[in-house]
Each structure stands twice: as structure tokens, then as C-alpha cells.
What does this fold into?
Amino acid sequence: MHLDWTLAAAALGIGIVVGLTGMGGGALMTPVLVLFFNVPPLAAVSSDLVASAVMKPVGSVVHLRNGTVRMDLVKWLCLGSVPSAFCGVLIARALGHGSDVQDLIQKALGVALVIAAAGLFARAYLRLAERARHRDASRDADPVGPPDIVVRPWPTLVIGVVGGVVVGMTSVGSGSLIIIALMAIYPTLRASELVGTDLVQAVPLVASAALGHILFGDFQLAITGPLLLGAIPGVFIGAQISARSQSGFVRRALAVILLASALKLLKADNTVLLAGLLGSAILGPLAWAWVRTRHGLPAFGRRERTAEPLSAERPEVAATAEPGSAVTA
It folds into this structure.
């Protein structure tokens, strides 16, 4: 097998982003394979899912040790997502292997990336709103144990089914589509528990999709090998950086990259692509500043960091913050 060191280097950079932000695996790896390495969409999805099946357990172990996983939710999610992820592969195979199918999968991937970008915003907004409630003392201190929520089996099962099909067909969704739906159904879950629960349920989900693609997809070892060679150390490096720094800027940049990739995959012309990039780069920060002021926070994060640390006012906030999470979302 000829090793593509350029592909390994790209996977290293993507792995660092994944370790730094907790998102972006399939949402970045698959578009990079399609747009920059001219890999057919189905082969890109297959190879990325197999690589993700190896990388996913790393973050899951950390959250299991920290107790930020709701296993009661994981059970219902997996009951829906594991079989549906395998079915997603069969659906993609049933569509055929012609250019029309590849085009359909590429468009589906573009839509999934739009959802992933929305997921980044939703997660950032969740952290901002929670921080604002702590700041104005309108929220009681977090309990020591997990929040008291009532598990809703059928809606949770449906989330798993839909998320599994999307992941099986596009490799995107386990860190975006599913986590957005969990926010809507279980709004009292802490951000760390949303991430931990999603990561753990994604392990069997991605493994099921990867097995399906090995058996019925367009898995290519020549692509997956370099991906693993670069991504595994990249995730480790990114996790180490995340533990020592703030990743808010990286998350915002990632949202812009996802939007640009989505527009390109959806075959937007250069004018639309440029307008989308400029709009997100210029109007996005202004809109976020407005959202911050609506929650009683300074418009820009730099002022907040120079103010009195939040942990000094509410010590329990620091104790419940996510490792590596940004002080400014």
C-alpha cells in the first residue's frame, strides 16, 4: 500500500481540531477528502467512518471516567442508531454506484454540514446562556449528582434512528445532529453531559456504520491508513492543547469552514460562496456580540476575561465547567 503523506498531514491537522473542539471529525475529514483529494463521496464516507471507529473511543473513556455520561440515554439512542446506521449503508448501496448516486451523497453531505455548523452555534449558545445565569445568580448551584431528568424513551429512540441513517450515509451527524436533538428534548442536561453522552453512544453507532461500509460500501485501505496515521496523534495533541487553552476561536473558525464546505459540496457558484464566507466572517461576530449583550455579558470576550473571574463569584461554576471549554463561547 502506497502511503500518501499529504493525506496523513491533512488528517493530523483535522485530528488536532477534533481533539481541541470535540467536533469536526466527519464534518471536516469527508469534505477534505472529496474537495482536496478528489476522493469519490462514497469512498470518502466509507474510509472516514472506519477511521472514526478507531478514534471515537478515546474521548469516550475520558467522559466515562469523569461521570459525564447518561447511560440511560445512551441505551435508547443506541437501540435506534446502531441498526439504522447499518441500514443507512444499505440505503446508499441500494441507490447504486453511478455518478448520480455520488452526486446525491455529496448533496446529502452538504446538508449534513449545514446541520453541523448549526450544532456548533447551538452548543456555544448553550454554554453562554448557562454562564449568564450563573453570573446574575438566577440559577441555583449545580447539584453534585446528575440533573434530575425524566427519560423519554420513544423520542430518544427516534433521535437515534434518524441520526444513525444520516451517519451511515454521510459520516456526519453523531456530533451535531444528535446533540442538537438532545438539547431540544433534555434542556436541563449540562453541556458536558450532552457531549459525554453523545460521544459514548457514537462509539457503537460509528462502529455499526463502519462495519456496513467495510462489507457493502466503498472502503479503501489506501485512504484509511493515512487517515489513521495522522488523525490518532492529532486527536491526542489537540486534547492536550484543549486542556491548557481556550478553544472558542477555533470553534468559530470551524463553523465558517463547515459552512464553506457545505456550499462547495452543494455546488454553489463562487459568488454565493464568497458572499457566504464574507457574511459569516463579518456579520457572524456582530450577531454574536448582540447575543452576548442580550444575556448581560460584554459584547466581546476580551473584556470578560479582564473582569473578575467568574469562579471567584460562583465557585461551583469552575467545578462543573467542561475540560478545555472556552471561557468565551
Observations:
- Residues 68-218+249-320 form one domain.
- Confidence is low (pLDDT under 50) at residues 139-145, 305-329.
- Residues 19 and 238 are 4 Å apart (CA to CA).
